[in-house]
Amino acid sequence: MKNIIFFLFAGCAAALLIALPEIGDPYILYIANLVLAYVVVAIGFNILLGFAGQFAFASAAFMGIGAYTLALLMSRLGVSFAVALPASGVVAAVIGGLVALPSLRMKTVYLAMVTMAFAEIVQWVLVQWKDVTLGTEGVNVPFPSLAGFEISTDEGVYYLLLGIAAVCYYLARRLLHSWIGRAFVAIRENEIAAKCSGINVPATKAIAFCLSAFFSGIGGAMFALSLRYIVPDGFGVFQLTIHFSMVVIGGLGSLVGSLLGALLLTSLPELLRGAQAYQEIIYGGLLIFFVSFLPNGLAGFLRARGILPPEVLVHGWRSFAVGREAGASGKSSDGAMPSGLQQSAFHEEAEQVAAKACASRADT
Question: Between 2.40.50, 3.30.300, 2.60.40, 1.10.3470, what CATH number should domain 24-309 receive?
Answer without folding.
Answer: 1.10.3470
